[in-house]
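Hi Y.,

Following your request, here is the sequence exactly as I used it, all 466 residues.
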Amino acid sequence: MLERLRYRVTGGVLFWDILITLLCLYASAFIRTSLEFGQELTRQGAQLPWVLYIVVSVIWLVIFLLLAPQRALFTRSLLEAIGRLVGAVALAAATFAGVLYLSLRDVSRLQFLYFAAINLLALLLFHLVIRSVVFARNRRSLRRRTLVVGDPVAAERLAEEFARRPWAGAVVVGYTSDAYDAPSRVERLGSIDETPAIVTAQQIDEVIFALPPQIHDRIAKLSLTLLKQPVMVHMIPSVLDLTFARTPVETVGGIPLISLRESALSEPQRIFKRLFDIVASAGLLLLLAPVMLLIALLIKLESPGPVFFLQERIGEQGRRFRMVKFRSMYQDADRRWQEVARRDAQGHLLHKLEDDPRVTRVGRRLRRTSLDELPQLINVLRGEMSLVGPRPEMPYVAAEYEPWQWQRFRVPPGITGWWQVNGRSDKPMHLHTEDDLYYIQNYSFWLDLRILLKTVVVVWQGNGAF
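Below is the corresponding structure, written out as tokens. Let me know if you'd prefer a different format.
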């Protein structure tokens, strides 16, 4: 759990460190020609070839990975963190100087010194800001509330280990146990069977099972129950569990932890997917702004009510958010869903009908062309959704899910997805889960591109949309 968070945070800092370094390299040309020191140099003469940007990226990346100043930023004292960063930048700059000496000796030495100096200053400032922000958030108690289920001794030990790692932003608020008189400095909040209710009442973010292997069936039952809540679930494993563990095993102060509800995406996949979402959604919002303004005007002219329709949906790990769409129904449609909700022969809920009387005339055309989905680009930009992924489910539909269906929330929900391009609304809602699980198990960036391209074709044909 802590390792996962540390790599996620330090990975983000590393990305921005490399980007800042490249910006400093680019700015060194302007500084060299602006300051009246050394031999006069033209702006064109100070510009560096693009291959040097690649060289700098590789050198800084390798040395930063070796010396890990980003990790020291959160796990060491301020003096140690600054020393690690200064040493890493100095070693990287010296390596770059050696490359220039062996290859491009015509690069201005003064320009190199400017680059090294502003790079060090910029990275120092950036690291100090990031460290201050992270520690300030922790001081304001914006921490992930953790509940230990089972052993009170493990709860006390984990509480001590989290206290030693304030950068992790985790705090043990208590434990649940069937033993009433167990000595522990951590508060007992209730029995093990009361865990789901305590998770809700205490707004728990992380649950750690510290139960003996003899009652694994009880752990499995509680884990399935907790799937319906937006919490991460971990387990302190036995020796046998460690032998056959198929998920990454992390340690906190020597205590091994197995995550039972880890994201289906690896960290590089998540970072790359998020970067693509940001660039693509921002570009599409700018490009389609005139079209969206026209749609907003048509909606206002046809019927009273707001332009946008906000609806609560369930996202990754069961977190709830407000999804934005163009309003395609009359203003009171959300209160009338029971009028059109139907069930199939097996009793599954069918909430979407082709002849829905609540849909407006403009709304019907928006649905046929999927233009009502465009405002969801805002959700993508905010990080609540992705361009491609499982559909964000409505809470009353998810309430009837079987436990295995909650696995679809292991990745961010998407505007489009595998089931949308393989049936869209022609397929009953309860059958979407199998398509979503197929997408999760076979995820790749190329699958995302394939789905996006196929979405264009499906929307153009207008098949299955209503």
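The longest strand covers residues 144-150.

Thanks again,
Q.
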